[in-house]
Amino acid sequence: MFKPLIFYIGLRYTRAERRTQFISFVTLASVLGIALSVTALITVLSVMNGFVGEISERMLSMTSHATITGKYGQLDDWQVLDQKIKGYPHVQGAAPFINGQVMINADRRVSGTVLSGILPVAEAQVSEVAEKMEAGKLSDLVAGAYGIVLGAELANYLGVLVGDKITIISPQVNSTPAGIVPRMRRFTVVGIFKVGMYEYDRNMAFVHLEDAAKLFRMDSSVSALRIKLDDLLNAPQITQALATAFYEDYRVSDWTTAHDNFFQAIKMEKRVMSIILLLMVAVAAFNIVSTLIMVVTDKRGDIAILKTQGLTSASVMGIFMVLGTVIGVVGTLLGTIGGVLLALNVADLVKHIEQAFNIKFLSAQVYYISDLPSQLIWADVYVIAGMAFLLSLLATVYPAWQASKINPAEVLRYE
């Protein structure tokens, strides 16, 4: 079916003739349509991957890779468990913490937040909060000094700076002769951090572990151990092994379960966007159908003559499949090259456009991610190119089949 003669004729039909300029223009439009669609799909998915990677990195800089706690939500023997965990395979570090819901009062402003008691040295081994400090240092949290580190958005809402005093109101209560009153403690702001995720910058605060233990009456207990792993992608398997090893006494969870809804929503959004953009590729690919039908109509006389000289219907079908495949391959290659180049340079291109027109697409005052990130995943490129080629190939079948059904006697009767 695909002999050298068939390839020669199929490729010959891709070249323009004076009387077929319009057909050649439609062919060029089909090639460019496929190329632009593939370029758009690769670029959009790369930008989405970039945003997901950026958000995930910021989220995981504050979130535990894995967490281990007791059956009843606290650990009494955390020092012993800490030594065991640190010697476990794939575990790079562990740090205790105490979490609790509190109200923070500063002047006339009140806000609810999550107060986390930590050991600054140990915390630096499992999270990046020490590297995200905008003012002060995490090491300024000293036991008994009642210092506190606030998220940037929380500090901005409360209107406080480093050195200011705030009041922490615990949900636990004290019994006094005057009745039951909530537990309150004055803290001094010693630092402000900014992760770039509103959820953390607005709703988190850190104090020293011993100060949190006194505030929440935890004595020597902690809420859980925060664990840092050497491979985030294998966190479920590692935590499963930990759960098996410590099943009788402890509960183990990982970051994938803690933020499962978020990552499922991201995955669904990417899948839907891929389908929508793939429809663009399908529309561009099926432009080949109209192109080939026009070529078949124009070449009816040529086909009839070739058939009278012994060319089979299968060979005629092969000629037009070669023609359509060439259009699809060229369009896919151009689109893949353009998409890869654009995905790798989209951040710089956007900056140049912003500078040239004095505009800002992602304002830092509105968006936490003010630059346009892009992460090219080659697996996506291969899938997109493969789908574009497959759709282009399928688009050639019907016009080629119609060409193979041409009857030479009917075409040449009035020639």
Describe the protein in words.
- This protein is α+β, with helices and mostly antiparallel strands.
- The protein has two domains: 4-58 and 262-412, no CATH class; 65-255, no CATH class.
- Helices cover 53% and strands 20% of the residues.
- It has 15 helices and ten strands.
- The protein has a six-stranded mixed barrel with strand order 2-3-8-5-7-6.
- Helix 2 packs antiparallel against helix 10 and helix 12 (313-357) packs antiparallel against helix 14 (397-404).
- The longest helix has 45 residues, at 313-357.
- It is elongated and about 115 Å long.
- The protein starts with a helix and ends with a helix.
- The mean pLDDT is 82.
Q: What's the SSE blueprint?
A:
Blueprint: H1 4-12, H2 21-60, E1 66-70, H3 78-86, E2 91-106, E3 109-118, H4 120-123, E4 133-136, E5 147-151, H5 152-158, E6 165-176, E7 179-193, H6 198-203, E8 204-208, H7 209-216, E9 224-229, H8 235-245, E10 250-254, H9 255-258, H10 260-298, H11 300-308, H12 313-357, H13 378-395, H14 397-404, H15 408-412
Parallel strand pairs: 3-8, 5-7
Antiparallel strand pairs: 1-9, 1-10, 2-3, 2-6, 2-9, 4-7, 5-8, 6-7
Short description:
The chain contains 15 helices and ten strands. The protein is an alpha+beta fold. It is elongated.
Average predicted local confidence, pLDDT: 82
| Total beta strands | 10
Give the domain tally: 2
> What summary fits the major beta sheet?
6 strands, mixed, barrel
Helix content: 40-55%
Shape, principal axes of CA atoms: elongated
Radius of gyration: 33 Å
Strand order of the largest sheet: 2-3-8-5-7-6
Query: What is the percentage of strand-forming residues?
Result: 15-25%
Query: How many angstroms does the end-to-end distance come to?
Result: 28 Å
